[in-house]
Amino acid sequence: MPSDCLLEVKDLKVHFPTDDGLVKAVDGISFTVDRGQTLGVVGESGSGKSVTFMTIMGLINRKKAHVEGEVLFGGRDLLKMPEDELRKIRGNGMGMVFQDPMTSLHPYYKVGTQIAEAILTHRDMPKEEAHKKACEMLDVVGIPQPAERAKQYPHEYSGGMRQRAMIAMALSLNPDLLIADEPTTALDVTVQAQILELIGRLKEDFNVGVVLITHDLGVVHDVAQRVMVMYAGRAVEIGSRDEVFNNPLHPYAWGLLESIPHVDQKGTRLVPIEGLPPSLIFVPPGCPFHPRCPHRFEPCDKEIPAFIDRGGGHPEACHLPIEDKRRIYSEREAGRRSRKAAS
Amino acid sequence: MGRYLIRRTLFLILVLWIVSVLTFLIFVKLPAGDPARRAAGTRTTEAQVEEARERLGLNDPIWVQYTRFAKGLVPWPGWFLNEQVYYSFKNFVPVKEEIFGRIPVTITLAVGAGATWLLVGIPIGIISAIRRRSLADRAGMLFALFGVSAPVFWLGLLFLYIFWFKFQQMGWPHAPGSGIPTGENLFEAVLAGRFVMPWIVLALSFAALYSRMTRGNLIETMGEDYIRTARAKGLSERRVIFKHGLRAALTPVVTMFGMDLGLLLGGAIITETVFNLPGVGQYTLNAIKTSDFPAVMGVTVFAAFFVVVANLVVDVMYAALDPRVRYS
């Protein structure tokens, strides 16, 4: 599959020096994104999901951050690229859709003009042609009467339509990679489903790789083929969707899965993960999750667990031997079922 | 858009009406001293005062007096600042004549100063915003602090002292002093540089305010989500700042400019006085000093009219600049 690999991130670190100390927003993360595939990135707020992909897009201020590692896109390291070359990739090679469609479009410019501007930035063509292309893109994302709608301002659009317009803008230059940072968080549930369906369809039509950043495990389960679980600026587990959902290996992933409601377990209490995510300035030594982990043992507060495949079929970062993981997880599952029976 | 403008116009007419009632009550019905006595002058007989009272129409019913007065607010030939009411009883000249004769000076002063403070304030604000915490930003904000703190009368005298008096003493080419010599028309006065110091002095405090405002607005705008979107499109930083950032950041500045200019067209009293410029502001001050009620009423009405018109212009500009306003 290496030929399908679009994006390869190797040991990426993003640290921000602040007056309070060094914020280790991203602290050594490695993963790949393939063409035609959706990678779901999950984690709590402050786990470094957004910063990781903002760094990849080159949207963080390089002067204010220490960035290390490699981000290979089309065989070139984006982190070593000068700003003006990076700009040619931004929007062109990779497009991004943001969380809040209400504020992501410029309120003073017409929607069609904003999409056409993206096209004209990267393609040499007459304005009318770019505008026509913008209307086409609005049509592609399912906006009715695109020619009239293109002449309207963002405030005349509903939230769902604005997000469709953002997707149209992100895909207007046929990028290889689409990064969607919590694209449905600010939308109604019904609109959410439509937008996710749209992203799924466009992934096939445009043959792009998709990164879907979310804290909603339900969304990831519905649309992602691969899942990356992040915690305190690190990846703690990466695997196919079925592996991560059916056979999770990291205690944090267990906690996440137990904290979401299941339709078949009506009436049972959700189990939250005890404690709070750590401060990214004072990350706990060893495994950053160990203060909240009910299964911590000898090495957890001393050694940072390597992010490797310990025999479970996909890489994860936890010191527990694989047999123990399997035993503990089946016990937790059994406990969950008995609680359900008791209720 | 049309309904918005009609609503704004009606609102401004209401404002003008309130101004007219208040001005009328203050100057005609609650004057400090009897207007008839002031019009008749000192050392006059009762009969002469009565005659003045009759001449000024002060014996008419109040609504007749008010109608006569309020006509002066309506921009209609023969009505605006009508001579029945707005006729100076100090130098016996219609107030309209005085104001219209002086307004070119005031306009020259206000527009020149306006251009100056925009050209100085906005670039300083932009540089301060995009090079935040740099030396340029610190210098710019120090300038702003100075400009806001320095009173115009002090600054004007300081400029005259240094660039006119001291330069003259030392034999350097010095700035033209204050005032416009008789026989020189306005155009010649501008060419002779007589407005340069007044422009700078009047513009300084505004430039300071505008640079702060531009800086604050631009910094706030550059943190908006749509700026991130613009960057994600791959636009150059220059385009992000000047097209996407300034478009939003300068809209409130433009509207503010309209208001300030309208206010100054009613007369820049201090600057005109310090630099001895024969504008509306100077006339206002003289009228107040000599208790020339019709003149004071005239400039009040005139200034109110300009402020209201400026408000309307600002509303139209706002609607043109911000598409969200047009539909609300």
Description of the structure:
Chain A has helices at residues 49-57, 83-89, 101-104, 111-122, 127-140, 146-149, 159-171, 189-206, 217-223, 241-246, 251-258, 322-342, and strands at 5-18, 21-34, 38-42, 66-73, 76-77, 94-97, 177-181, 209-214, 226-231, 234-240. Chain A is an alpha/beta fold and 343 residues long. Among the domains of chain A are: 105-172, no CATH class; 247-342, no CATH class. The longest helix of chain A is centred in the C-terminal third of the chain and has 21 residues, at 322-342. Chain A contains 12 helices and 10 strands. In chain A, helix 8 (189-206) links the parallel strand 7 (177-181) and strand 8. In chain A, strands 6-7-8-3-9-10 form a 6-stranded mixed β-sheet, with helices on both faces. A 4-stranded antiparallel β-sheet of chain A has the order 2-1-4-5, covered by helices on one side. Helices cover 36% and strands 21% of the residues of chain A. Chain A starts with a strand and ends with a helix. Chain B is mainly alpha-helical and 328 residues long. Chain B folds into 2 domains: 2-95, no CATH class; 96-289, Orthogonal Bundle (MetI-like fold), CATH 1.10.3720. Chain B has 15 helices and no strands. Chain B has helices at residues 2-29, 35-40, 46-55, 62-71, 95-130, 135-149, 152-169, 186-191, 196-222, 225-232, 237-265, 269-274, 280-289, 293-321, 323-326. Chain B is flat and about 85 Å long. The chains are: A alpha/beta (343), B mainly alpha (328). The interface between A and B is medium-sized, with 31 and 22 residues.
